[in-house]
Amino acid sequence: MTNYCIPSYPFWCLLLGSAVLSLGCGPKGETVAQKVVQPVNPDHFIADSLIEPIKKEMRTLSDGSKAECYVVTTKAVPSDHEIGPWAPKHVTDGKEKGGIWIKDGHVYDVSGEFVAHLDELYDDPQWNLVREDGSIKVTDTKEAFDLAARPNVDPRYHNHAVECPPDVVGWKSNHNVYVIPVNPVYRSIATDPHRVGDGHGPVGVAFNGVKYDPPAPIHMIIKAHTIAPFDHSGGHVNPHAGYHYHAATGKTKEIEQADGHAPLIGYALDGFGIYAHLDEDEKEPKGLDECSGHYDDVRGYHYHVSAAGNNQIIGAFRGIAGSASVVEPK
Fold first, then answer.
1. Which residues belong to any copy of the YHYH domain (predicted)?
2. CB 203 within 8 A of CB 317
3. Domain boundaries defined on the chain
């Protein structure tokens, strides 16, 4: 599978104000008719995750065209699982006190011992997140979180585990608003999400309303000798855009498939379904294109998420994306 997207933006990249993550114009291609096209099913979204009933409206898509779309407004916090933990607080803490971290396709449990040996993992003696008393340096205040969860990490917070402190809750009142075409359209040219709009927007949404984001730029995070662990659901928080996923780990709502195919776990912003990585026999999908998708006669064209250690949900958009935004209620 070709990795189409280049993780060139940090996970904490954001827009000020309403933190809008809207998508804009991208490259155009010919529309290719498909024998089978599965429309978006709004009933798959978890009712407890919705702020208001899903609406159907004519909206403008990322290429400037108009289409009938679902407008899905959701809560910022998932309704089907707890968020966190992310970082352990002491070298003696077990893996249950932390989340996960990824490197070279591998998923690691973030225990205290794991944090203590980051210098070995990265073959770099400058890693040192552990104090003399065994406690781990974690962003445990809003100031620390804000100064560490940004591209130019404040030098005071180098060698820290970056996580959202539990008392930083303002983001939880935000709403996620998704505009998704009802009937996805297959295009001959794939669109890299980083080349669409401001390049920071999500690629899709889980049925609990949480954003599926582009790859986290691990290389930029570790440059400051920091890690920003995901929880065991594959998500973490940034100061403005809130909780979002960089990996799918099987903790969210799934729509099982009668033929044993991998379950449906959400929708991309272009309306094509996003399915889990493995089918019921734990086999990987075959014949994926640069977008992480392929076609079958039951589901039509659809995506498969990459393995959790690959730091990628999907590779690119095959269809015409709608938009997503984070709205701060007045």
1. 178-278
2. yes
3. 42-81+171-216+247-327, 95-170+220-242
104-141 as b/e: b if 16+ CB within 10 A: eeebbbbbbebbbebeebeeeeebebbeeeebbbbbbe
Pairing of strands 242-245, 211-212: parallel
* Measured distance CA(133)–CA(322) in Å, rounded: 51
In this prediction, residue 95 carries a pLDDT of: 98
Q: What angle do CA 44, 169, 223 make, to 5 degrees?
A: 90
Query: What pLDDT is attached to residue 204?
Result: 97
pTM: 0.90
CA dist 254 and 102 (Å) reads: 23
Annotate 71-97 with b (16+ C-beta within 10 A) or e (fewer): bbbbbbbbbbeebbbbbbbebebebeb
Low-confidence residues of the chain: pLDDT under 50: 1-27
Predicted local distance difference test score (pLDDT) of residue 319: 97
Are the beta carbons of 196 and 64 closer than 8 angstroms? no
pLDDT at 6: 30
> What order of strands is seen across the sheet that includes strand 293-296?
235-238, 242-245, 211-212, 204-206, 264-268, 273-275, 300-304, 293-296
